[in-house]
C-alpha cells in the first residue's frame, strides 16, 4: 500500500507525515469515510533519503504487514474463543452453555491482549518507509 503525504516533522530518521488525498481516493468506495486521509503517521526515512519538512513523500506499507495484522488481530483471538468454548465443554461436559461462552469470551480477551502486545513489540511495530516523490 502506498500513501502520498507531506513531511510535517523530521527528527533524525523519524518522519511525521500528513496523509493527503490521492488520485485513487475519488474512485474508492470508502472515500467519504476514509480513516487515513488527513491523519499524521510516524514513518522512517528510507535509506539514503534526505527528507525535509514540507517535502512530498510516499509512505510504503508492505502488503504482508496488512496480512499479518489481520492474522494477529482477527484469526488468533477468534480461534482462541472457539478453543476456550469447546475446551470447557470437553473438560466439563456438565457445564452450561453460558459457562462455555464466558470461557470463550475470556480467551478472546486474552487473545486480543496478546495480539496488541505482539503488534506493539514485534515486527508489526515497524514504521512505514517514507521516500521522496521525484520532483519534475
Can you characterise this structure?
The protein is an alpha+beta fold and 136 residues long. The chain folds into two domains: 2-61 and 127-132, OB fold (Dihydrolipoamide Acetyltransferase, E2P), CATH 2.40.50; 64-124. Helix content is 40%, strand content 23%.
Search tags:
136 residues; alpha+beta; OB fold (Dihydrolipoamide Acetyltransferase, E2P); 2 domains; rod-shaped
Task: Explain the layout of strands and helices.
Layout: E1 2-11, E2 14-19, E3 40-45, E4 56-60, H1 63-91, H2 97-121, E5 129-132
Parallel strand pairs: 3-5
Antiparallel strand pairs: 1-2, 1-4, 2-3, 4-5
Helix pairs in contact: 1-2
CATH architecture of the largest domain: Beta Barrel
What is the number of independent domains? Answer: 2
N- and C-termini, Cα separation:
23 Å
> Helical content, roughly?
25-40%
The CATH class of the largest domain turns out to be Mainly Beta
Structural class: alpha+beta
Brief overview, please?
The protein has helices spanning 63-91, 97-121, and strands spanning 2-11, 14-19, 40-45, 56-60, 129-132.
Amino acid at each position: 500500500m502506498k500513501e502520498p503525504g507531506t513531511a510535517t516533522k523530521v527528527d533524525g530518521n523519524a518522519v511525521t507525515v500528513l496523509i493527503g488525498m490521492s488520485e485513487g481516493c475519488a474512485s474508492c468506495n470508502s472515500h467519504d469515510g476514509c480513516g487515513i486521509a488527513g491523519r499524521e503517521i510516524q514513518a522512517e526515512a528510507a535509506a539514503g533519503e534526505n527528507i525535509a519538512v514540507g517535502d512530498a513523500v510516499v509512505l510504503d506499507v508492505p502488503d504482508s504487514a496488512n496480512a499479518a495484522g489481520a492474522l494477529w488481530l482477527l484469526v488468533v483471538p477468534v480461534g482462541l474463543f472457539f478453543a476456550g468454548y469447546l475446551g470447557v465443554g470437553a473438560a466439563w461436559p456438565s457445564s452450561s452453555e453460558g459457562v462455555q461462552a464466558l470461557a470463550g469470551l475470556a480467551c478472546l480477551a486474552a487473545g486480543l491482549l496478546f495480539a496488541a502486545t505482539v503488534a506493539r513489540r514485534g515486527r508489526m511495530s515497524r514504521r512505514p518507509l517514507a521516500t521522496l516523490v521525484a520532483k519534475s
